[in-house]
Amino acid sequence: MAKAKAASRGEQQRLRSALLGGCFLLSVILLVVYTCYVVSFSGLTFWRSNRAVPPVADAKEKITEDKVASTPQEDVRHQEEKLPSNPFCDYSNRRNDYCEMKGDIRIHGNSSSIFVAISSTNTTKLQESWKLKPHPRKGDSRAMARVTEMSVKTISSHNGPVCAVHNSVPAIIFSTGGYMGNFFHDFTDILIPIFTTSQQFNGEVQLLISEILPWWNEKYKKLIQPLTNYEIIDFNQDQTVRCYPHVIVGLKFHKEMSIDPYASPYGLSMVDFGRHARKSLALERDTTIKLGPAQDKKPRLLIVARKFTRRFANVDEIVRKVEEYGFEPVVAEAKYHDLAEFAQIVNSCDVMLGVHGAGITNLVFLPTNAVVIQVIPLGGLEGISWIDFGLGTISMKMHYLQYTISLEESTLTEQYARGDPVLSDQKEAYRKHGWAHMIELYFFRQGVNLDMARFGSTLLHALELLRQQ
C-alpha cells in the first residue's frame, strides 16, 4: 500500500513537472511569434539596441527627464518674486538643452540674447544667465561647434532693451547647425523635432532659426511653412528687439527618426509626421497597393541607387530578379536638390530597397503599409541601422525588413585578402585601425553585390506583407 502511494506521488510530481515545462515552452513560442509579428526581418543577423526601449519605459524615462531642475521650495520662491512661469533651462536630457518661459520675453537675435524681464525688487535674481546651444546633438563636439550659443538672462523690466516689435504669439528658437545638409540629420535633428514642438500652437507661432541658410530654407520650405503662419526670422542676422509672451528655446529630441507619443504634445507620432510630409508635398498615395485576386497592378519596388558610396554593384541583376518576383522595378537616385520631385517617386512605390545610408530617410514619403528593405553592409552596422531607420519605419505603420549581407556580397573582398580582419573580424579591425579609418572603409569604400538566390526570400517576404494588408 505504501509503495502504491509513493508511486502515485511520484507520478503526480512528474505530471506537475511536465505541465510546468510545457507552460514554459508555450511562453517561449508565444514570445518568438510576437517578436516576429512586431518586427519582420531577414538576413543572418539582427540586433536590437538597448536604446530602442518599449514605449512604456520611454514614457517613464521622459517623465524624469522633463522635470525642471528645481525643488518645490525653489518653485515657491520663484513665484513670490513674480518671475514668469518656467524661466529656467532644463539641461538633464542627454541629447538637448531646452528653455521655456512665459511673461515679458525680449529677443535680440544678433547678440544671441533672450531676456526675461521681471519686476521683482529682489536684485539678487536680476542678471542671472543660462546658456545653451539649441540643437539636439548635445555631446557631439563636432556638430555643436556649428551651433551658436545663446543666453537666457533675467533683467529688470525698466532697464532691459526696448521692444521694437510686439508679438502676441509664441516663438520657437532653434539652430539648423550641426550636420545641416546631411539628409538624414536634416530630418532627425530638425524637421521631425520642430514638427512635434510646434504642433501645439496650430500655426500660431513664429520660428526664429539660427544658422539657417537660404538654400536650406528653400529646400525644406514646403515642410516648414505649414507649421507657422508667420515670417521665419533669421536669428543671427536679426537686429530687431522682438517681444513675445511665450518663448521656447531648443527642440526636444525623442529618438532617431522617430517620435515618442508619450512625450509629445497630444500624443503625436511618426504617423502624424508622415501625413504632414505627404500633405505638404502634395503626395497622392496614403496607403499601398493591396495584393489579391482582384488586383492586376504590380507593386512598385524602388531601388535607391547610389553612384559612389555603398552602391549596388549589380543593379541590372537586381532589376531582373525584382521583375521575376512580380514587382515593377523603379531605379532612381535621390535628388536632394529637388525634394518634391523625388518624394513623388518614393510615394508612388510600395516597397523601397536601399543600402544603409541617408537615402533610406526617404521612407517618410512612402504610403502607409509600405515595406522598407534596408541592406546592411559589412562592418557590424546592424545595430545602428535598426536605430536609425528600423524603429522609425515601424512607428510609421510600415513593414521593416533588414537584410545583412554575407561576406561574399561585399565589394571589399576585391580589396582585401580573406584572412584580413577587415573581412573576418570587424571588432579586431576597429581596434587595429581605429574607428575613423574603419568608418571611412565600411561606409565610403564599400559596395554591395547582392546574391540574388539568397535575396529572393526577402522579396517573397515583402510580397507576403503586401498581401496581408
TrEMBL record:
Broad class of the protein's primary localization: Golgi
Region annotated Disordered, chain positions: 61-83
Domain Glycosyltransferase 61 catalytic: 289-373
InterPro entries reported in the protein's UniProt record: Glyco_transf_61_cat, Glycosyltransferase_61
Cited Pfam families: Glyco_transf_61 (PF04577)
Transmembrane segments: 20-47
Gene Ontology molecular-function annotations: pentosyltransferase activity
Membrane topology of the entry: Single-pass type II membrane protein
UniProt pathway annotation: Glycan metabolism
Keyword Transmembrane helix: yes
A single Gene Ontology CC term: Golgi membrane
Keywords: Glycoprotein, Glycosyltransferase, Membrane, Transferase, Transmembrane, Transmembrane helix
Subcellular location: Golgi apparatus membrane
Name this protein carries in UniProt: Glycosyltransferase 61 catalytic domain-containing protein
Native source organism of the sequence: Zingiber officinale
